[in-house]
């Protein structure tokens, strides 16, 4: 445990989470880590999708690792939103909430009577944050929004990899997670705006805009007339000058970033680069430079190259496996991983909240909840008596 106090910049902020998959839950988890009281609303019976799927089919004592990674510091309330009484509870929760976050397909919350127009009449101070695949006014609003689909649609998968080879999607759900950060940022901005005006407002994020924002640099070059052509070599983008790319070594791979060719020529050493170094950041010589470097880097191991190049100011790094990444002293020094104890899953390692604030440190106040673990607690806070809670349970409303 950290000696710093628990991060509480959002203490007193009540968030209702009608979220699913990764983008919504991860965005809400950012708010929970900053101290918000997040109520995860899920269907009764443990049928929530995130509880029943996990990447690598990884379940810890039957608990989905996918659920665990995006639901810490939250309370679980089970509600049957197709049941009038369950829906009535949701509407009562809205009355005192500060924020509602939802990432169902456009139209779902409206059909439930929980759309922005309806809930803003119940609570004019409510901040209503939505995330969807393409945006609520898009002609594709009814299409599924999923990371790989959006990587393809937005052009992200098409800009990586080598020329003549299949497109190369990013190997993690990068659009989901960037969308989650944008969603949380929108909620924080809305809280500041409400503090000034006293009025609630709407926040809308989409996976499409998140995907495009990830490409802010390369897309801007394209929009302003640049020709973007992938290389058959290990050059890692279509717009950087050489040596920016991935190079084989004797035992693995090395990346070289944006180092002046004159310095690189001395460090390798590779005198054949000297003519190209006469032109600063020689973009036009990308292919020629890469082909000169490729056979040279194969002569030494990755560690030997780093020992040689880094002290000479060359921007170089090893291409690590996850084992190597998390064993590296630099990763250990930033204390990015926290191990928690879950009542069923047992010890679970999670990535920490990725920001540090001087007033406190985000920590796990609550492990990811079991289905409906806090239902009675939350209903009592809303004014329901123990007898009413028992009746609601018996009726299947919660």
Topology readout:
Blueprint: E1 14-18, H1 23-33, E2 37-42, E3 59-60, E4 63-64, H2 65-68, E5 74-78, H3 84-96, E6 99-102, H4 108-111, H5 116-122, E7 127-132, H6 147-154, H7 174-197, E8 202-206, H8 207-214, H9 216-223, E9 245-248, E10 253-256, H10 261-267, H11 274-277, H12 286-297, H13 302-309, E11 316-318, H14 322-327, H15 329-333, E12 337-342, E13 346-351, H16 375-381, H17 386-395
Parallel strand pairs: 1-2, 1-6, 2-5, 6-7, 7-8
Antiparallel strand pairs: 3-4, 9-10, 10-11, 12-13
Task: Name a few traits of the molecule.
17 helices; about 400 residues; six-stranded parallel beta sheet; about 15% strand; Rossmann fold; three-stranded antiparallel beta sheet; alpha/beta; elongated
What does this molecule look like?
This protein is of the alpha/beta class and 398 residues long. It has two domains: 14-214 and 332-395, Rossmann fold, CATH 3.40.50; 253-318, no CATH class. It is built from 17 helices and 13 strands. It has helices at residues 23-33, 65-68, 84-96, 108-111, 116-122, 147-154, 174-197, 207-214, 216-223, 261-267, 274-277, 286-297, 302-309, 322-327, 329-333, 375-381, 386-395, and strands at 14-18, 37-42, 59-60, 63-64, 74-78, 99-102, 127-132, 202-206, 245-248, 253-256, 316-318, 337-342, 346-351. It has a six-stranded parallel sheet with strand order 5-2-1-6-7-8, sandwiched between helices. The protein has a three-stranded antiparallel sheet with strand order 9-10-11, covered by helices on one side. Strands 3-4 form a two-stranded antiparallel sheet. Strand 1 (14-18), helix 1 and strand 2 (37-42) form a beta-alpha-beta unit. Helix 6 crosses helix 8. The longest helix is centred in the middle third of the chain and has 24 residues, at 174-197. The radius of gyration is 25 Å and the shape is elongated. The model has no long low-confidence stretch (mean pLDDT 96).
């Amino acid at each position: 445990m950290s000696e710093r106090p628990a991060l509480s910049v959002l203490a007193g902020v009540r968030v209702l989470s009608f979220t699913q998959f990764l983008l919504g839950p991860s965005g809400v988890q950012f708010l929970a880590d900053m101290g918000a009281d997040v109520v995860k609303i899920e269907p009764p019976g443990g049928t929530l999708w995130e509880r029943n799927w996990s990447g690598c089919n990884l379940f810890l004592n039957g608990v989905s690792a996918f659920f665990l990674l995006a639901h810490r510091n939250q309370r679980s309330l089970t509600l049957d939103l197709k049941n009038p009484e369950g829906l009535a509870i949701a509407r009562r929760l809205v009355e005192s909430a500060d924020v509602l976050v939802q990432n169902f397909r456009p139209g779902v919350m409206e059909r439930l009577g929980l759309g922005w127009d309806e809930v803003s009449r119940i609570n004019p101070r409510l901040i209503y944050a939505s995330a969807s695949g393409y945006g609520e006014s898009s002609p594709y609003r009814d299409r599924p929004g999923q990371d790989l689909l959006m990587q393809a649609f937005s052009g992200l998968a098409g800009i990586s990899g080598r020329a003549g080879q299949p497109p190369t999607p990013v190997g993690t759900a990068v659009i989901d997670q960037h969308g989650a950060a944008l969603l949380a940022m929108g909620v924080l901005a809305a809280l500041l705006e409400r503090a000034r005006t006293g009025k609630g407002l709407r926040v809308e994020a989409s996976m499409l805009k998140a995907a495009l924002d990830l490409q802010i640099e390369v897309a801007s070059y394209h929009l302003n007339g640049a020709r973007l052509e992938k290389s058959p070599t290990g050059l890692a983008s279509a717009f950087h000058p050489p040596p920016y790319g991935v190079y084989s070594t004797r035992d693995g791979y090395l990346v070289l970033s944006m180092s002046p060719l004159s310095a690189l020529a001395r460090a390798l050493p590779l005198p054949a680069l000297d003519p190209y170094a006469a032109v600063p950041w020689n973009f036009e010589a990308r292919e020629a430079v890469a082909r000169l470097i490729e056979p040279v880097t194969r002569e030494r191991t990755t560690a030997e190259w780093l020992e040689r190049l880094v002290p000479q100011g060359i921007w170089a790094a090893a291409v690590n496996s996850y084992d190597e990444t998390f064993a590296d002293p630099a990763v250990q020094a930033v204390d990015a991983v926290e191990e928690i104890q879950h009542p069923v899953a047992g010890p679970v390692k999670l990535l920490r909240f990725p920001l540090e604030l001087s007033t406190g440190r985000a920590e796990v106040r609550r492990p990811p909840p079991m289905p409906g673990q806090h239902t009675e607690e939350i209903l009592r806070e809303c004014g329901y008596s123990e007898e009413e809670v028992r009746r609601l349970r018996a009726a299947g409303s919660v």
